[in-house]
Amino acid sequence: MGPRHVFVTGGTGYMGRRVVGELLGRGHEVRALVRPGSEGKLPPGCEAVSGNALDERSFAPRVAPADTFLQLVGVAHPSPAKAAEFRSVDLVSAKASAKAAAAAGVSHFIYVSVAQPAPVMKAYVAARAEGEAAIRSAGLNATFVRPWYVLGPGHRWPYVVLPVFRLLQVLPATRDTARRLYPVTLARIVATLVAAVENPAEGIRIIETPEIRRARL
After folding, report:
1. Phi, psi of 75, rounded to the nearest 5 degrees
2. How confident is the model at residue 172 (pLDDT cuts 50, 70, 90)?
3. In terms of DSSP bridges, do strands 184-185 and 68-71 run parallel, antiparallel, or are they unpaired?
4. How many beta carbons lie within 10 A of that of residue 166, not counting itself?
5. Is 96 exposed, middle or buried (0-12, 13-18, 19+ CB in 10 A)?
6. Is 105 left (phi over 0), alpha (psi -120 to 50) or beta?
7. Sign of torsion, CA 54 60 61 65?
8. Taking a C-beta distance cutoff of 8 angstroms, is the pair 102, 140 a contact?
9. Quick one: pLDDT at residue 165?
10. What are phi and psi of 177, to 5 degrees?
11. In 10 A of CB 16, how many CB atoms?
12. Neighbours of 172 (CB within 10 A)
């Protein structure tokens, strides 16, 4: 399969800049939705589309002729205190993107969701699950990528609890939950997203933590 034409929301964020750069380096065409004035945060070679990720009317006409839509918008550093933002930002942007992608005839939608079920961060999980439901309802072929926590620059504190996760993976009673919630590295999530772009899903595909941890570029 040849180069993909990718429309990205959240392209200037923690994951977005790295994914966009990697896609461009592999010969794909990428356009990214940005707030006015943020165009300079995108990697060279990425076309900027100014608009509001919470309002599909501001960017829907610019999605075509993309064949792939990559949804990366989300509240930075999620915590229980941000429950309202998960609904007003994460969920609203997912619904807006699903509508825009469907209207543009996009053939594959990629959504960074979250590991579920989970014993904590229930508002975050609920918002992402509703985002997945909106994408399904739009009738899109979609890949849902479900990490729990992505390790990288500025996001390293879970390294101290990795030994606990390793122990919990050994115990039968906690094995499945520990595998599902095990933190993944930024490099692995980028590799997962690039692979999803280059290998479009037919119907709904779900990629969970064990598969993310095996991803390589």
Report:
1. -65, 130
2. confident
3. unpaired
4. 11
5. buried
6. left
7. positive
8. yes
9. 62
10. -65, -40
11. 27
12. 6
Q: In which residue are the tokens 């994460």 written?
A: 90
115/144 Cα distance (integer angstroms): 10
Measure the CA–CA gap between 150 and 143, rounded to whole angstroms.
Answer: 18
Please tell me whether the peptide bond between 44 and the residue prior to it is cis, using omega within 30 degrees of 0: no
Which candidate, 69, 158, 80, places its Cα nearest to that of 126? 80
The SS3 of residue 158 is helix
Alpha-carbon distance values, 57 to 52, 62, 97, 112, 214 (Å): 8, 10, 10, 22, 38
Query: In 10 A of CB 153, how many CB atoms?
Result: 7
Q: Who's near 98: CB < 8 A, 6+ residues apart? A: 109, 134, 135, 137, 138, 140
How many Cα neighbours within 13 Å face the side chain of 105?
2
Query: What are the structure tokens assigned to 163, written together?
Result: 């030994």
Contact 125, 132 (CB under 8 A): no
Determine the residue type at 72. Answer: L
pLDDT for 151: 86
Residue 171 has pLDDT above 90, yes or no: no
Q: Are 194 and 26 in contact (CB under 8 A)?
A: yes
Sequence-distant (≥ 6) Cβ neighbours of residue 54 within 8 angstroms: 88, 89, 92, 93, 96
Reduced to 3 states (helix: H, G, I; strand: E, B; else coil), residue 16 is helix
